[in-house]
């Protein structure tokens, strides 16, 4: 419909065309009026006659019944106009926001809970998604020339193979892809015949945190890489035969078997073959394999520094030279099937969130999956992982009916401790009951899961405004185990303000005194700090001062500096004195601190609620930072002095009129300072008497702790 005197506009649908071509309504009756009512003429020329293609039978719409107004249509720019549209915002793309475009192959597939993995090959072949994943896997093996088809012989016993299906999810729980993997039945191999070497290193979690710490404080880019079908790049040295993959047999040679040329998944030597192939390439490029952690590769040449972490086929790459990193990716892609996954966001089940003050790591998705697998997604949360005396009545209850289920949940909780040091002692305590769990032990396990339910988003924060000073806190709970009278030792190491590693472990033997228990734990902590110190030296990070160890037992501190031999320490094992040797060499300084400042106390025993909260905060655990909005007001600007408009003298003056274009500053009415007295013995409801005679009734919890002036605290 063309309107004279106004820019050309078109209605959504023409009423006549709809009535001629469609016999049923295209929308609900409430929306048909919008589609069939013509747009009113422009208000700027109401008397101008209009030309419309609407049939005469359609009644004209009066201005009073018009659905659209001029405000509903923004002013349009004529094609001949030289005026350019005003665009003050930069382009926002999926890559900049870390959004991955979904694969159209999985458009009809839902999440894992509603779409389980197929149990048989026949079922998978009927599904288009799984069939496509299996076809892609077989095509990749043909491209890499994984095997050759050979006729079978009488003295050859080929290995079997099977399909493994896995639904891979993104960090937000959405469907990532359907993965089908063809694996050999490696348990049928014979040592010395089908394989020789099987060991392959994986990176330690403390090494990952240390590398992320270095990248965070230096503000380096961290790239996440992946290798498609990584094991198929490894060359197989032994002669191994395998049957053809089920569902994809060669119709022309159905009786032939596969003579493997590549280390297919499932073979015992496959991880070793892949690691040898990949590490050889990195060494040729100029990397050096770290001695403290062979899965860390370091590149240091002049001012250029790069770190590469390898966990099977998942990698992290960071450094101070972006061009050199891109050159490495090009070289890797020429030999391996590399996949650049962009900046670090989801690595080994750990979610990474970058913010202006550093890097935040947590396992919220993994924790939610744990709750679902345990059937406790709707459970009530608990404030602490364990009660004050967790092992008081465990020996009085009967055995748990399903020990396998208990071990499964306990093992899943162990992996959650990668970013949750607050549950390290609790998980270590329940894992000691794996061999014969009781019903009370299972109740303790469920309490830990209930605590996780209330702290799903909790994680560790790596600050970018700290140094790399190495320090460790060591503590021990003497004779804490009521069943064996053994002690529990714990320690935690820091690089500046960032926690790097932690441990909670029960001693193998009984300690005769608290000094012996503390001294034994200090020896364990000294080995950890020496390992971290050597790792820092290989990565080119110099220590500004000598590493320090803090202990709250004065006798144990004196034993590290004085080689005294008396009746209470003459029976100490030789490995206990490792800490004394490091102190004598000047590689370690041991200091005494009060028990109230001991951060490792949370790794040795179950603590009261407030003490547990305090230590959890001091360890660096927090919730994910709130992202700032684009174009939002800086928080510092709120503290600047602004101009306040004059207020009316009385209510009859009415609101203040503001001229158009004036700058307005909105200020809330300041809260007057009130001196208040809180009645004692009223834990839940505190009645406050203000100075102006106004009474307030404030409902507070016993655990409430308000910060700031005028805060009311209930003890």
From TrEMBL:
- Region feature (Disordered): 38-71
Task: Supply the alphabetized keyword list.
Answer: Nucleotidyltransferase, RNA-directed DNA polymerase, Transferase
Q: Which molecular function GO terms apply here?
A: RNA-directed DNA polymerase activity
Positions the record marks as coiled coil are none
Extract the Pfam families matched here. RVT_2
Database matches in InterPro entries: RVT_2 (IPR013103)
List, for all copies, the residue spans of the domain called Reverse transcriptase Ty1/copia-type: 145-386
Q: Quote the biased-composition stretches of kind Low complexity, using this chain's numbering.
A: 43-66
Q: Does the keyword Transferase apply?
A: yes
Read off the PANTHER family from this record.
Answer: GAG-POL-RELATED RETROTRANSPOSON (PTHR11439), RNA-DIRECTED DNA POLYMERASE, PROTEIN KINASE RLK-PELLE-DLSV FAMILY (PTHR11439:SF524)
**In its UniProt entry, what is this protein called?**
Reverse transcriptase RNA-dependent DNA polymerase
State the species of origin. Answer: Arabidopsis thaliana x Arabidopsis arenosa
């Amino acid at each position: 419909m063309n309107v004279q005197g106004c820019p050309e506009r078109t209605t959504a649908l023409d009423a006549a065309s709809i009535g001629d071509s469609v016999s049923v309504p295209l929308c609900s009756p409430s929306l048909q009026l919008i589609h069939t009512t013509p747009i009113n003429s422009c208000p700027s020329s109401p008397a101008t006659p209009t030309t419309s293609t609407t049939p005469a039978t359609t009644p004209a719409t009066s201005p009073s019944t018009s659905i659209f107004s001029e405000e509903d249509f923004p002013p349009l720019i004529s094609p001949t106009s030289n005026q350019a549209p005003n665009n003050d915002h930069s382009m926002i793309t999926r890559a900049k926001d870390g959004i991955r475009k979904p694969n159209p192959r999985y458009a009809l597939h839902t999440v894992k809970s509603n779409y389980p993995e197929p149990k048989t090959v026949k079922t998978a072949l009927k599904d288009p998604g799984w069939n496509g994943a299996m076809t892609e896997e077989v095509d990749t093996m043909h491209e890499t020339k994984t095997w050759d088809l050979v006729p079978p012989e009488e003295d050859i016993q080929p290995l079997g193979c099977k399909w493994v299906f896995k639904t891979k999810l993104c960090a937000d729980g959405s469907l990532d892809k359907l993965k089908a993997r063809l694996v050999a039945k490696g348990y049928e191999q014979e040592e010395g015949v089908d394989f020789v070497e099987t060991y392959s290193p994986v990176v330690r979690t403390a090494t990952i945190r240390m590398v992320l710490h270095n990248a965070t404080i230096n503000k380096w880019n961290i790239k996440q890489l992946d290798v498609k079908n990584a094991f198929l790049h490894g060359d197989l040295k032994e002669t191994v035969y395998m049957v053809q993959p089920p569902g994809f047999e060669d119709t022309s040679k159905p009786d032939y078997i596969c003579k493997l040329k590549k280390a297919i998944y499932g073979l015992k030597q496959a991880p070793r073959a892949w690691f040898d192939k990949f590490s050889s390439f990195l060494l040729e490029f100029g990397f050096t394999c770290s001695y403290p952690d062979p899965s860390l590769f370091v590149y240091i040449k002049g001012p250029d520094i790069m770190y590469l972490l390898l966990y099977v086929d998942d990698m992290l790459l960071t450094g101070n030279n972006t061009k050199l990193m891109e050159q490495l990716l090009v070289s890797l892609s020429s030999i391996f099937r590399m996949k650049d996954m962009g900046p670090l966001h989801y690595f080994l089940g750990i979610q990474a969130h970058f913010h202006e003050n550093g890097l935040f790591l947590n396992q919220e998705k993994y924790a939610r999956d744990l709750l679902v697998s345990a059937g406790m997604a709707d459970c009530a949360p608990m404030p602490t992982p364990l009660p004050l005396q967790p092992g008081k009545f465990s020996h009085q209850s009967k055995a748990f009916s399903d020990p396998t289920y208990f071990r499964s949940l306990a093992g899943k909780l162990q992996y959650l401790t990668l970013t949750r040091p607050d549950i390290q002692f609790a998980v270590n305590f329940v894992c000691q009951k794996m061999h014969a769990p009781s019903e009370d032990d299972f109740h303790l396990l469920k309490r830990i899961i209930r605590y996780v339910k209330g702290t799903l988003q909790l994680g560790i924060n790596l600050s970018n405004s700290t140094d790399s000073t190495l320090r460790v806190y060591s503590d021990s709970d003497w004779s804490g185990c009521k069943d064996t009278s053994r002690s529990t030792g714990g320690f935690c190491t820091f690089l500046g303000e960032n926690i790097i590693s932690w441990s909670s472990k029960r001693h193998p033997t009984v300690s005769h005194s608290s000094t012996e228990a503390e001294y034994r734990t200090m020896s364990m902590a000294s080995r950890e700090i020496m390992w971290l110190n050597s790792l820092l030296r290989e990565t080119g990070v110099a220590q500004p001062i000598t590493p320090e160890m803090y202990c709250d037992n004065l006798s144990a501190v004196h034993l590290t500096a004085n080689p005294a031999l008396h009746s209470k320490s003459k029976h100490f094992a030789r490995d206990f004195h490792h800490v004394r040797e490091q102190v004598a060499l000047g590689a370690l300084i041991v200091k005494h601190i009060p028990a109230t400042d001991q951060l490792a106390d949370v790794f040795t025993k179950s603590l009261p609620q407030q003490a547990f909260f305090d230590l959890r905060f001091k360890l660096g655990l927090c919730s994910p930072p709130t992202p700032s909005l684009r174009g939002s007001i800086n928080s510092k600007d709120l503290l600047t002095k602004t101009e306040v408009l004059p207020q009316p003298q009385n209510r009859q003056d009415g609101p203040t009129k503001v001229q158009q274009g004036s700058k307005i500053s909105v200020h809330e009415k300041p809260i007057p300072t009130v001196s208040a007295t809180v009645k004692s013995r009223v834990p839940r409801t505190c009645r406050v008497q203000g100075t102006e005679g106004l009474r307030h009734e404030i409902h507070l919890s016993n655990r409430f702790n308000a910060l700031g002036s005028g805060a009311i605290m209930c003890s």
